[in-house]
Write a structure and sequence with these properties.
alpha/beta; Rossmann fold; 10 helices; 15 strands
């Protein structure tokens, strides 16, 4: 079990990803809610977090994070998710790969796998896959979003509309059971929805900090069978709504 200082530092990092309720933190660390409230009070005194009703969030936590900021969050968890997701690429001839840091981690695995075509709007994944023997890279060109280094807009959508994929691997700002995945801008979710519609198998790659997070305003729906791949740090409370969703299969990746 973590000591108080280590627990508070980890809580501070978790709150950079999303607001978290006291009850969820208490379950995660197997301590009382009063202990968590004392932790949050100490973090609040230093300006590291902002208290909310029933929980806390990081200052400015509702602003979209840059790719560089996301790369510093949950690195081992994203690598584990990528390792696990790579198994589902076996036997695929063409996969759609989203933009983002978790997708970028998967791109590294796909580069080592070879023997398939990868279509992606993510500059991070493009840099990994360009020129790799055994990988045919399709760039879904469009307007580059500086924060995520992903391409969006009608040009990217037109490219996706011209293909079908064996599988799509999507990231998200947040994922909510029975609702879908959310992003900061409508053009992001428009492209994701089209990628979903043009793929046979659907995988959402989301570390525990993304589960239940709904603070972005734009949504792509998950209204057909899909698989959530998350890390083993996800709590039972976080996973329960996904297990209860008849369309969702939950897989956890050991870090």
């Amino acid at each position: 079990m973590l000591n108080g200082a280590a627990r508070r530092e980890e809580i501070r990092g978790l709150l950079q990803a999303r607001p978290i309720a006291v009850a969820e933190l208490a379950e995660r660390y197997a301590v009382s809610e009063s202990t968590i409230r004392r932790d949050l009070a100490r973090l609040s005194e230093t300006g590291g977090i902002v208290r909310t009703y029933g929980g806390a969030l990081s200052p400015g936590g509702e602003d979209e994070q840059s790719l560089q900021e996301r790369e510093r969050l949950a690195g081992p968890q994203k690598a584990a998710i990528a390792r696990h997701a790579d198994r589902h690429a076996a036997g695929c001839r063409l996969v759609l790969l989203d933009a983002g840091t978790t997708a970028g981690a998967l791109a590294v695995r796909l580069a080592a796998r070879g023997g398939l075509t990868v279509a992606t709007p993510g500059l991070t994944s493009i840099n990994v896959l360009a020129g790799v023997p055994g990988v045919e890279l399709v760039v879904l060109g469009g307007t580059v979003r500086p924060l995520s280094l992903g391409m969006v807009g009608p040009l990217a959508e037109a490219a996706v509309a011209r293909l079908t994929a064996d599988a799509v691997f999507l990231g998200a700002d947040g994922v909510v059971a029975g609702r879908g995945i959310c992003e900061a801008r409508p053009e992001q979710t428009a492209l994701k929805q089209l990628m979903i519609d043009r793929s046979r198998d659907l995988y959402v790659l989301a570390d525990a900090g993304k589960l239940g997070r709904a603070d972005s305003h734009w949504w792509a729906t998950l209204d057909r069978p899909w698989t959530l791949i998350t890390d083993a740090g996800a709590t039972a409370a976080q996973l329960r709504p996904f297990h209860d969703d008849p369309l969702c299969t939950v897989e956890t990746a050991a870090v």
